[in-house]
Amino acid sequence: MSAAAARPARPRRSVLYMPAANARALEKAKAIDADALIFDLEDAVAPDAKEAAREGACAAASSGEYGYRELTIRCNGLDTPWGRDDIRAAGAAAPSAVVIPKVSSAAHLAAVSDLLDTAGAPDSMRIWAMIETPAGIAHAREIAGFERTDAVVMGTNDMAKELHATITPDRAALVPHLATCLVAAREAGVTALDGVYNDIRDADGFAAVCRQGADLGFDGKTLIHPSQVDPANEAFSPSLDELDFHRQVIEAFEAAVADGRGVVTVDGKMVENLHVDEARRAIALADAIAQR
Q: Which domains does the chain possess?
């Protein structure tokens, strides 16, 4: 199991990509209610702006000006002219994690980890591994289980491209592969983040995909626009009604155990140990959200 599994979970319902070449966007991010930010050096940055973006991302990550928001930096791939320098610079800046695109294997992550160590990154600094290629899907278990992995991030656009698949409203072509990666994350005890939704004008479509991701079991969603933050936070948070039911489950089960019974009924539903575990997980998440 990953070393990340031993650490308490933190809310990662909304994880917003911010283009690190855009100083105004980096400033605006300080007031956006996202659980986590990804300062992006990859897709959102033109080649001639890569080095300036790297400086901006590292300065932002080490500024201490983003409050409760978890800060990460998405580096360029190791197969690009910028990837290794990105990782070394991020290691020195020491955000919560580096986000690595198109991870193909545990060996890929070992190379990233070595670069972080060379840069003097703290042992607490993690890797968020993007799974977006056939190789990544095929090696999802070893990627999620790598000792420095703290999250697996679905790169659904590249995944669809590499698979020659079409992204339909129900994402039918991608769901089997999303599930494969989710199982790997759950086995390793790391966060699983769903991929982005491309149409920022389609609020209903976005809400539906958030519900699907939450129903599948993802912890949160990566986002491309601030308008998506509040709907994602809502979709991946337990509702007040759910929390009330979870508290009833725990109270009823504890009373049943005290009476020597292992099964109890709450609102006509049979409750066992597994339901209590889920209730406690949901309440712990709600408490973590409240403490941000």
A: 3-235 (3.20.20.60), 240-290 (no CATH)
